[in-house]
Amino acid sequence: xxxxxxxxxxxxxxxxxxxxxxxxxxxxxxxxxxxxxxxxxxxxxxxxxxxxxxxxxxxxxxxxxxxxxxxxxxxxxxxxxxxxxxxxxxxxxxxxxxxxxxxxxxxxxxxxxxxxxxxxxxxxxxxxxxxxxxxxxxxxxxxxxxxxxxxxxxxxxxxxxxxxxxxxxxxxxxxxxxxxxxxxxxxxxxxxxxxxxxx
Length: 199
Hints:
Number of domains: 1
Strand content: 35-45%
Largest sheet: 6 strands, mixed
Strand order of the largest sheet: 8-6-4-2-9-12
Radius of gyration: 15 Å
Number of strands: 13
């Protein structure tokens, strides 16, 4: 069993001022968050299917999470490379991904890990972000959530768009080499995440 540091609890506090989806402070230039980013999308019920398009150039782990059973279709624009997709939810999550992308799915239905958070900040989302850190071995760079949005685009500036009426957004860890401090905050989390890593 491998243990990965989890800084999500402190990051939730450190990033509290960056949860307004209309704020330009949520944007980051391509490459500003290092050479690898992890983006998390959480939805309670996207209606059975969801799509995510990444337009931002770089290398990514993408995490998609829903409470309800969902089939996610993931794509990337030229210059965006998705290395890993982690799908997790209470009910079974299925992923249709570009060729060559490593996909891991977990759910309560499968008897494995489950987590789902769509609002920010709250305990369900904190649990999801802790699980992401442990499974992906990279702290989440951003979180985007909604109760029922099914179609998501992560733009070149990191801003996420969807058809959500009330979308929650946060930049969580965009300060490479600063050991988890983010959002201009001074959070420094401690603790451990349990479970074997998937990547």
